[in-house]
């Protein structure tokens, strides 16, 4: 190949490399790119649903044996995509060369992709070798293998590679940090004070030979469950002073702890409006 031909080939390869990088790393560019990433999202969601079903005892063995072929295909798919991502990252100046590729592989989302591929390889390897199955239930239920399976769940982070959602949340929280800190501080003060009052009112009450509020920690747990509007019912005030304090906690505490949701909601709305105004101006 002549020098001119090699030069044109290198230029075409760089253009192709940049197109591949934009296609994989910037999903908003074109409907084909969006369709590909939406397909990946559906695949990841499907894997998550199957992974949840596999933890149910009566379905675990049947689904796991059949799903191993799908898992193998997904391993090849995500491993190939990871290699292509590392190769295409060379179109950017900071990721050029072997050292630049290594820096790209050290980014958080690339590390997660690598962990997912390695975790899937380990799980598939155990299945192929026959070490996971009805013949070896101890190995199937080992804590190490459960941790490895957890990395497969991290495929959901593959959908938002640039972490735009997390950046938006952190940006809104930072802009409204004063309001959030103030409301959470006041809510925390109300929680610890009223929980202690409930403890004082209920600590001597005995039901069926036990004291529901034996310690301040029990009362604090009760207060957290109350302001979170969960209401497990494992601890209930039985004295009238305790009930009155709990009523005050329900009205005041819940109001303070629900304010951060309203602050963040209004912050998101204002942020979206500002983005729309910037688009209209530009």
TrEMBL record:
Subcellular location: Cell membrane
Membrane-crossing residue ranges in chain numbering: 34-56, 68-87, 107-126, 178-201, 213-232, 244-270
GO CC annotations on file: voltage-gated potassium channel complex
InterPro entries: Ion_trans_dom (IPR005821), K_chnl_volt-dep_KCNQ (IPR003937), Volt_channel_dom_sf (IPR027359)
Tagged with keyword Ion transport: yes
An example Gene Ontology molecular-function term: voltage-gated potassium channel activity
UniProtKB keywords: Cell membrane, Ion channel, Ion transport, Membrane, Potassium, Potassium transport, Transmembrane, Transmembrane helix, Transport, Voltage-gated channel
Residue ranges constituting the Ion transport domain according to the UniProt record: 38-274
Mode of membrane association: Multi-pass membrane protein
Cited PANTHER family: POTASSIUM VOLTAGE-GATED CHANNEL SUBFAMILY KQT MEMBER 4
Protein name: Ion transport domain-containing protein
Protein species of origin: Adineta steineri
């Amino acid at each position: 190949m002549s020098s001119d031909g090699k030069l044109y080939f290198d230029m075409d390869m760089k253009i192709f490399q940049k197109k591949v990088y934009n296609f994989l790393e910037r999903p908003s560019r074109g409907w084909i790119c969006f369709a590909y990433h939406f397909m990946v999202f559906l695949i990841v969601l499907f894997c998550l649903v199957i992974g949840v079903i596999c933890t149910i005892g009566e379905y675990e063995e049947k689904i796991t044996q059949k799903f191993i072929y799908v898992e193998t295909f997904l391993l090849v798919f995500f491993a190939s995509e990871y290699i292509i991502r590392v190769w295409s990252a060379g179109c950017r100046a900071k990721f050029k060369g072997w050292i630049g590729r290594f820096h790209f592989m050290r980014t958080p989302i690339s590390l997660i992709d690598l962990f997912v591929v390695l975790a899937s390889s380990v799980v598939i390897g155990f299945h192929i070798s026959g070490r996971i199955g009805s013949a070896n239930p101890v190995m199937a239920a080992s804590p190490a293998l459960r941790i490895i399976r957890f990395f497969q769940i991290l495929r959901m982070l593959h959908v938002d590679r640039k972490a735009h959602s997390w950046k938006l949340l952190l940006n809104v929280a930072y802009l409204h940090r004063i309001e959030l800190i103030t409301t959470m501080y006041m809510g925390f003060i109300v929680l610890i004070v009223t929980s202690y009052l409930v403890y004082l009112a209920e600590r001597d009450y005995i039901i069926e030979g036990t004291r529901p509020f034996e310690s301040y920690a029990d009362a604090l747990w009760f207060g957290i469950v109350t302001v979170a509007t969960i209401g497990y019912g494992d601890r209930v005030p039985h004295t009238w002073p305790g009930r009155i304090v709990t009523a005050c906690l329900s009205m005041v505490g819940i109001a303070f702890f629900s304010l951060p949701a309203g602050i963040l909601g209004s912050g998101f709305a204002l942020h979206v409006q500002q983005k729309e105004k910037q688009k209209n101006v530009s």
